[in-house]
Each structure stands twice: as C-alpha cells, then as structure tokens.
Design a protein that fits this description.
By secondary structure, the protein is of the alpha+beta class. The protein has three domains: 419 residues, no CATH class; 90 residues, no CATH class; 138 residues, Immunoglobulin-like (Sandwich). The chain is 49% helix and 14% strand. The strands form four sheets. The protein has a five-stranded mixed beta sheet with strand order 4-3-5-7-6. Strands 8-15-12-10-9 form a five-stranded antiparallel beta sheet. A hairpin with a 4-residue loop joins strand 13 and strand 14. Helix 5 packs parallel to helix 16, helix 9 runs antiparallel to helix 10 and helix 13 packs across helix 15. The longest helix has 34 residues.
C-alpha cells in the first residue's frame, strides 16, 4: 500500500472516529433530564417484548402495530443487559421509570452515532470525500436529530434507517459504484425502517422511481443491469417478508390479527387525526393542511442547512445538464426523497413535527453538497488556495456549521425546542403550531417538589405519565372530575391550545395566574395552577385523624378506616357524613360507594350511593398508600320515626353490582349508630 493510500485510509478512520465523538458529545450528557410524551409507553412495550422473546412467546412479540420491532428489541435488550431482570420492575415512576428511560436511551444514542458514521461512509461513495465529511458533521449536529436520538421512541431510529437506505440506493446508482452490495444494504435498511414504522413504505415507490431515473439515457446493458438487480432485490425482499410472516404464524402468532392491526393503523393514520382539536398558524381548531410540513422543514432546519439547501437548488438548476454526473445525480435523488417523503406525509390526517425527521436528515445531506460546491468554487478563485480548494471548502464549511451550533446547544437539554432563528425561532414556531412533546414538565415537577409536604400533593395533569416520573407527589390523569380534588393542576400548553383534555376544564383556569410557568427559549411550555376550590385536603399519604375509627378490609384492596358522624339529627334534615378510606391495592374498576340508612329492624329508609369524593376521584386512580376523606350528605326522610339508625356502607361494581367483601364474607360494614329525633 502506497504512502498516499495509507494516509487516506488513516484519515478516513480518523474522520469516522471524530464524527462518533461529535455525535456523542451533545447526546450523552443528562439523559433523562426530561421525558417525551411517548417514552414511558415505549419502555413498557420494550419490556414486554424482550420478556416475550426470552420466554419464546412468539405471539407476544407483537406489541405495537407501528410495528416498532427493532426499537423494542434494542431498548429491551439494552435494559436487560444494563439493568438486569426486568420482571421485578413494577414501574414505580420515581424509583424505576427514570432509570429505565435513561438506560434505554443509550441504545438510541449508540444507533445515532453509528448512523452518522454510516452516512459518512456511504456519502463517500456518491460525493467527494470532503463533501461526505461535511455531510456527516451536519447530520451529527442536527439539533432535531440530536434531541430525538436522546429519547426513547421510534422516530430517530426510523430516520436513521431511512437515510441510510436512501444513501445506499444512491451509491448503487452511482455509475462508478454500481455494485449489488449497496442495493442489498438499501433493502436491508429499508426493511429495518419498515419494521420500525410504517411510513417507511414510501421507500418502495421512491426506489422504483430512482431506478427508472438511473436507467434514463444509459446504454441498454446498463439499463438491464439496473432493472435486473432492482427486480431481484425487490423479489428477495418480498420472499423474505413472506417467509418471516409464515414463520411467525407457525410459531403461534395471531397472523390475521397482526395484519388487520397494521392495516387499521395505516387507514387510521390517513383518516383519523390525533386526539383533541388542532392549532395552526395562530388559529385554534384550524386543521393542519399540506403546508404544515413545509413550515416544519423551514423551522426545524438550522441556518446552515437552510442556506445550504438553497445553494444546492441554485447550483442544481444552473448546472442541470450535468445531472448524470455522480454528485449531481446524488443531489437529484436526495432532493427527490425529501419532496416525495414530505408530500406523502401530508396525505395523512395524523401530523406531528417528529414525522418530518427522515426528510430533514436527507435535506442536511443536500445542504452539505450545496455548501461544498459553492465553497470549493470560491476557494478555487483564491490564488493561494487553488491547489487545496477541496480541503479549504471542508474547513470553511465546518467552521460555519460550528459557528451556528451554539444557538441550539444553549437550550440543553431541550434540543427539541430549537427552531431556525432566520424565521423568528421559537416564537414563530409557537405561532405556527402547538410546540412541545414533554419539555418543561420536568421544570413543573421541580417546582412542585419544592413545595411543603411535596410528597403528599395530589397533582392532576393530562401528561401524568410523564410528570409522574419527576414529581414526588401522587400524579393522576387530569379529567373533568378529578381536577376538583387535586392540590395542583398542571397544564401542558400544547395540549391546552388543542382543547385537551376538555375546553371547559381549561376555561376554568384560564383567568387564574399560574403559580409557575416553565419557559423554554421565550415560549411557555407548562403551567402549574393551585386548586382554588379545595376547602380541605381530601387525598393524602398521611393517616387522617378519625372521629370513630374502624378497621374493615374489603377484598384486601381497600380498608375502611372509620367515619365522622353527628350523634343526633332531626327527621327531614341533611346528615353530613365523612368516610375514611385507605387504598391497599391498585384497582382497574371504578367502584361506587354504597350508603344505606337503616333502622334497627334493618329497613332501608334512604340511600346515598355515589362515586368516591363526590364522583371526582374514581377508585381506578387510587394508589396504595393513599388515604381519602370522602365527604357527602344524606337526607333523612321527614317521615322517619325517632329512634336509633345506622349506615350500611360498602363498595360495589357499577355494572355487575357485585360488592367487595370483608374477610368473613360480609358485603358491607356498619357506620353508627346515631339518633333521629
């Protein structure tokens, strides 16, 4: 090996190592500092997936119609390797979930770093070496890619696989490189992308169109070569998919159910928008139209990528006659993917900012080529730089990229909140759509954790799954009922703009001044509100003082601790009653409280059945260790004769009417006595 070749080999490995370092530096610090809205879901799904895999339960591998197989396998095995046995985790949100989130995110970080190196290696096959190095650097420092690749989800992995598939196909279609391993790699990455998320299906029509474009103007043998290998690999992918489906079916999976679930997901994605209303261009209830992803491509790019994409368009149009040359052909194929993917995503009713990431990464590659062409041309015009124009283009381009990097690094760890300052930054983004995917909820939790008796707070939030990871108090899902009994209500403003959970619940707090607002880059993300209508604490982790103590177990799920009750009351009066409950086990059923007024003969004179705490705190929200003060009133009939009465109390299923029983088999307990005058 000559000295020049050896030096080039060493340099490429050095660049690959440097790119890995650059990719890891902004991603590794403070993993788990905040959690995205879907992260707990993917942690739980991944645990179920890997446990089913280790049990040999092939049917249990189907956890999601996304399908999400590579992410769940990667997250689950990473947690199993670094944490240990996962069955012992009951997802206590502060003890377990944060640790699992942080551990699983390491898999995303590792894949992202390897994807950056893959981008560089494949870009070397379609561009000049310097362009490839700049492209790898741009992708490594894309703030949206950095942000999503620090979270547990499927969007960063999807973007990584799709970008590698597109670049592999471009490498195969480069005349000087046309070798079947690149096409095989494109198919492999495409299959991994499809197994990650269904939008990867766009690679099929894109691949066919790309193969057709590559055959235009080529000699007949070359056209036959392109078509032959393209058809071969498509057939191989089809047969592989059928073999996988057949194997899965033979191993016990519900194949028909899986196919229906996936097809229903595709149809739902096209027809059914996300939960709640919409917010677009400053107007509530305005649906997200076809311009939504155009806005996102503009807002989510960095100034470097946006200007570079513009330069590439100018260069491409001015030199359109050279489109068959390798660099220009690659620019055309990459640009085609950006347009194809963005246009395809506009067809769906479900639209999210995260969905645009695959197009954004490929646009980064286009921008890198645009910058390199222009900078190389400029450097070539300088007398002392002419002989090393390629290297100077890389140095200048890398320097420009690093100069714009601090504008989003300052937002650490909220890289998802970075928006292009050339278009007004975060404030413009907040006008365009409802920004936020969980950022700022950690700040809201930190504020609540600083309050007196923080561990005893009852907090209601539509994002309870995420807020509960960080808040020390009891966090429940915000509903139209339970916000009456919560100590604090936390609104995520992106949800509130879309009238989630309920418009009238949001309106009740709109006029209040929040106790705390989580701000990120000048935009409010979450607000913490005190409950103004809570006369006394009704839910606590501290055992209450009870006037008449009891100790009654009901199916070992609930303990009746006692009651407060007047000693006497006149007929026709309203009797104030307070029952005290302790939750022993979580419950999935919303049991009703049975209260019957009975005389000494057992005759029922009145009843006051109700949901716990006035129907504002259903038993499905109860958690072990909570004590509840259930206040209500019972009207004594005017014709009730004077004498001694008692209350017959219990809990029953609202549908079957089946009651919880004491250890002795009795389906109620007695409160009282008291006297009716």
């Amino acid at each position: 090996m000559s000295t020049m070749v050896r030096r080039a080999f060493v340099n490429r490995w050095a660049i690959a190592g440097a790119l890995i370092l650059v990719a890891l530096l902004p991603r590794l610090p403070d993993l788990g500092a905040f959690a995205g809205a879907d992260e707990p879901f993917w942690v739980e799904q991944s645990i179920s997936f890997v446990n089913a895999l280790l049990r040999g339960d092939w049917a249990g591998l189907f956890q999601s119609p996304h399908p999400g197989i590579p992410p769940m396998a990667g997250y689950g095995l990473t947690m199993r390797l670094l944490v240990g046995e996962l069955d012992r985790f009951h997802l206590n949100y502060q003890a377990d979930m944060l640790r699992l989130l942080t551990t699983a995110a390491m898999f995303d970080v590792l894949v992202a770093a390897l994807a950056v190196v893959g981008v560089y290696a494949l870009a070397c096959q379609v561009f000049d070496h310097e362009t490839a190095a700049l492209a790898g650097l741009v992708v490594a420092l894309d703030p949206y890619f950095v942000g999503l690749s620090r979270t547990v989800g499927i969007d960063a992995l999807l973007a990584s696989f799709m970008t590698l598939a597109v670049l592999s196909l471009a490498a195969y279609l480069t005349p000087a490189r046309r070798q079947w391993p690149y096409l095989a790699l494109a198919v492999l990455c495409g299959v991994l992308a499809f197994l990650t998320k269904l939008p990867a299906l766009v690679l099929v029509p894109y691949g066919l169109v790309s193969l057709g474009l590559a055959a235009i103007g080529r000699p007949r043998p070359a056209r036959r070569d392109v078509v032959r290998w393209g058809v071969f690999m498509l057939i191989a992918a089809l047969l592989g998919g059928l073999a996988l489906a057949a194997t899965w079916g033979l191993m016990g999976a519900r194949l028909g159910y899986i196919v229906r679930a996936i097809s229903d997901t595709i149809v739902a994605g096209l027809d059914v928008p996300h939960e709640g209303g919409s917010y677009f261009l400053g107007e509530p209830d305005r649906p997200l139209d076809g311009t939504f992803y155009v806005w996102l491509l503009l807002l989510k790019t960095t100034p470097f990528s946006l200007v570079g994409a513009g330069l590439s368009l100018i260069v491409g149009l001015l030199s359109w006659r050279r489109w068959r040359e390798p660099g220009h052909r690659a620019w055309l194929l990459l640009s085609l993917f950006v347009v194809t993917y963005a246009a395809t995503m506009t067809l769906g009713a479900k639209k999210q900012d995260r969905y645009i990431l695959p197009a954004l990464l490929v646009l980064d590659l286009v921008a890198a080529w645009g910058w390199w062409v222009v900078l190389r041309w400029a450097a070539g015009r300088l007398p002392r730089r002419r002989d090393h124009a390629d290297q100077w283009a890389l140095v200048i381009g890398g320097t420009l990229l690093l100069l714009v990097t601090p504008f989003w690094l300052r937002l650490h760890p909220y890289y998802l909140a970075a928006y292009n300052p050339l278009l007004g930054g975060a404030k413009t983004a907040a006008w365009v759509y409802a920004v936020g995917w969980g950022e700022g909820l950690d700040q809201a939790a930190a504020y609540l954790n600083r309050q007196p008796e923080a561990a005893d707070l009852l907090i209601a939030s539509h994002n309870a799954w995420v807020l509960g990871i960080y808040a020390r108090g009891q966090v429940v899902q915000l509903t139209a009922q339970n916000h009456y009994v919560a100590d604090y209500i936390v609104f995520y403003y992106a949800d509130a703009l879309r009238n989630v959970p309920e418009p009238w619940v949001i309106e009740r707090f709109r006029s209040q001044t929040p106790a705390f607002i989580a701000w990120i880059d000048g935009v409010p993300y979450a607000g913490v509100y005190r409950n103004p209508d809570l006369p006394r604490k009704l839910v606590s982790r501290h055992r209450p003082a009870v006037e008449h103590p009891l100790d009654v177990l009901l199916d070992r799920r609930v303990r009746g601790l006692g009651y407060d009750l007047p000693e006497t009351a006149p007929a026709g009066a309203t009797l104030p009653v307070t029952l005290y409950w302790e939750c022993l086990e979580p419950m999935s059923v919303d049991y009703q409280v049975m209260v019957h007024l009975v005389d000494e003969a057992g005759r029922v004179w009145a009843q006051a059945d109700h949901g716990p705490l006035g129907g504002h705190f259903a038993t499905s929200f109860w958690q072990p260790g909570l004590f509840l003060r259930d206040e209500f009133e019972l009207r004594i009939p005017a014709d009730a004769p004077a004498g001694t009465y008692r209350l017959r109390v219990g809990l029953y299923h609202p549908v079957t009417n089946q009651r919880l029983r004491t250890p002795t088999g009795v389906d109620h307990f007695i409160v009282g006595p008291f006297t009716v005058r």
